[in-house]
Specification:
The mean pLDDT is about 95. The protein has one domain (about 1-364): DD-peptidase/beta-lactamase superfamily (Beta-lactamase, 3-Layer(aba) Sandwich). Strands 1-3-2-14-13-12-11 form a 7-stranded antiparallel beta sheet, sandwiched between helices. A 3-stranded antiparallel beta sheet has the order 4-6-5. It has 13 helices and 14 strands. The chain has helices at about 10-20, 65-80, 90-95, 105-110, 130-140, 160-170, 175-180, 190-195, 215-220, 235-240, 250-260, 275-280, 350-364, and strands at about 1-5, 25-35, 35-45, 60, 185, 245-250, 265, 270, 285, 295, 300-305, 315-320, 325-330, 335-340. The chain is α+β, with helices and mostly antiparallel strands. The protein is globular and about 55 Å long.
Length: about 375
């Protein structure tokens, strides 16, 4: 075990150690902050299956969709600065974003996956995912799959382009550039030097259960163009794909989630109480058309719903493919992150993360 932990939360470290010892985890990190204080920053296990490289607290790992919560945090800060408004129409910021009812979509609706742009139904070159301008343009011109604002349909890849293009137009910089100015522990668009800190992932033993397959689910997850392909690993890692290729440590993610929990990101970004309340307010709830779950969405984050995180109902957060998890509880000033390199097949509510969260709360 590497890192530091407040004695109050010793049991969280023991839970992480047990997960590694049992083989559920190869290497993993857990971190937590309370009102800006880093109370847990631990790593255990190994980066490689040969068990020669220890997992460190500053090791970076691809966290897939947990990066969506980081995008939501940056939007929260922009709203607090008055640069964006959750109720503002996206088409006012992005004039090309029109057609099929999209012109009336608010930023909050796009953040809560109500755009009808969760995937491309028609075949396209999967290498285009690393072409930001082309993909953003295609989404702006796309006819929605369903009437916008009438349902949630998770966008595994498209969310990053929709939110990222709004952010770029409002703030004059990309999400990757914004992160480079904030932290070395959450990266979108890896440099060669940063790549030396990355632990490779071990694929899950079985694919996730997507429930009954529909055309929208197939397009989002299962088509050959559903995710980037036909490019080198270096090109994929170096591209900015905010919804799916952020690389981070648990420390960096938990620190970012403090923006929701206590209103500050390491003193570098702030969020007003009013904006935070808007961010975690329920925007839509019900059966998602892509993820096989009944979900309650805030502005870019899951709301605790039916044991999603094993936390009180005041918690919000996100999961990433393979098991990574981020959480914030504004009622308690708590933020949390778990980052593993051994992937599981759970899309949400990974038992490893839930155990750590429950252990954390038991010690509060």
């Amino acid at each position: 075990m590497i890192g530091t932990v407040d004695p109050r939360f010793h049991a969280v470290g023991e839970a992480l150690r047990a997960s590694v010892a049992s083989g559920e985890d190869l290497g993993a990190q857990v971190a937590a902050f309370i009102d800006g204080e880093n109370v847990i920053d631990l790593a255990d296990g190994f980066q490689d299956r040969a068990k020669t490289l220890p997992y460190a607290t500053d090791t970076l790992t691809c966290v897939y969709s947990s990066g969506k919560a980081v995008c939501a945090a940056l939007i929260l800060a922009a709203v607090s600065e008055g640069k964006l408004d959750y109720e503002q129409k996206v088409s006012e910021i992005w004039p090309e974003f029109v057609g099929g009812g999209k012109e009336d979509l608010t930023l909050a609706q796009v953040l809560s996956h109500q755009s009808g742009l969760s995937a491309f139904l028609e075949e396209r070159d999967p290498a285009l995912w690393i072409d930001w301008d082309r993909t953003a343009s295609d989404l702006a011109a796309m006819e929605p799959i369903f009437p916008p604002g009438t349902a949630s349909a998770y966008g595994p890849q498209t969310f990053g382009f929709l939110v990222g293009e709004v952010y770029r137009r409002a703030m004059g910089k990309t999400i990757g550039a914004a992160l480079r100015g904030l932290t070395r522990d959450v990266v979108c668009g890896l440099s060669l030097s940063e790549a030396t800190r990355v632990a490779p992932l071990v694929k899950p033993k079985r694919p996730p259960d997507l429930g009954p397959i529909t055309p929208i689910k197939r397009a989002a997850f299962l088509e050959k163009w559903s995710a980037p392909a036909g490019v080198s690993k270096q090109a994929w890692a170096g591209a900015e794909l905010p919804a799916s290729n952020m690389h981070a440590s648990a420390h960096g993610l938990a620190q970012a989630m403090q923006l929701f929990a206590s209103g500050t990101w390491a003193g570098k970004l702030g969020a007003s109480d009013h904006a935070r309340e808007q961010a975690w307010a329920e925007r839509i709830a019900g059966d998602d058309l892509v993820l096989p779950f009944n979900l309650s969405w805030g502005a870019g984050v899951f709301r605790e719903n039916g044991g999603l995180f094993g936390a009180p109902p005041t918690a919000i957060g996100h999961y990433g493919f393979g098991g990574s998890c981020v959480l914030a509880d504004p009622a308690r000033g708590v933020s949390f992150a778990y980052v593993p390199n051994q992937q599981s097949s759970h899309l949400v509510a990974d038992p490893r993360a839930v155990r750590l969260i429950e252990t954390l709360y038991a010690a509060l």
